[in-house]
Amino acid sequence: MNSLTRNIVESSECCISKYLILKSFPILRILPFIRILSILPILLILPILSTGQTALEIVKKADAKMRGNTSQVEMNIKTIRPSWSREMDLRVWSKGNDFAMILIQSPARDRGITFLKRGKEVWNWIPTLEKTIKLPPSMMSQSWMGTDFTNDDLVRESSVIRDFEHSLGTDTLILGRPCHTIWMVPKPEAAVVWGKLMVCIDKKDFMELHTRFYDEEGQLVNIMNAYDPALLGGRLIPTRFEIIPVEKRNQKTEMRYKKVVYDQPIADGFFSINNMKNIR
Length: 280
Prior knowledge:
By secondary structure, the chain is α+β, with helices and mostly antiparallel strands. It has two domains: 3-50, no CATH class; 55-278, Clam (outer membrane lipoprotein receptor (LolB), chain A). Helix content is 24%, strand content 40%. The chain contains five helices and 14 strands. Strands 1, 2, 3, 4, 5, 6, 7, 8, 9, 10, 11, 12, 13 and 14 form a 14-stranded antiparallel beta sheet that branches. β3 and β4 (114-118) form a beta hairpin. The chain is globular, with a radius of gyration of 29 Å.
């Protein structure tokens, strides 16, 4: 018997043996499917294990890190235009999501101008006019003190937690840091400035490093980038932010944190209209 014939015979015997075994033991025919079914639950939960957190949980952690229970911040805001620039020094106090106070300390012409948030109400004190103005919701989308921030960006009348639905997008890399991408769409009943937001939050330290602001038609309006993470107030947070209007060339606003104190007690009464007029 030559080698070719021998190979054919051995192959035939092998096939006949497998056929007889499978005929005698039918369970062997479905073993591959049993193996697949046994690992299917693992395959199904892998996406959950890979993220471990919902989009809302991630946003809550990032928001809590920047806000704390209370915060006191000294900052500088620089508005940059093609032919000029302008700087302001501010002090900001906040407590949770319901209370905030912003005091402008310089330049001299704006010194003493104060903004107060209590719940959904926003007030503005202008010392040169000795006048207190309640800002209507329609003004939340307008420029804050001539910067590229809106009133809502600074005063936060809307809540990134309460007023939006959150969903996870594709992970990305920013400043060399792996980040979650989270899409935020306003709830139908929420009075929110933006049509939707795309927020990129650092996976390790829950820092918000990049945000895109879209209008109600889905058009990109502003981009915010965060830089220079550093320890301030005992927390690793971005210390420099820039907001760039996409349709206005050579224009942006920069915000720099100089000092932050977290979780020092602040009484609710501090955030009052009377105190807004007297705070220094």
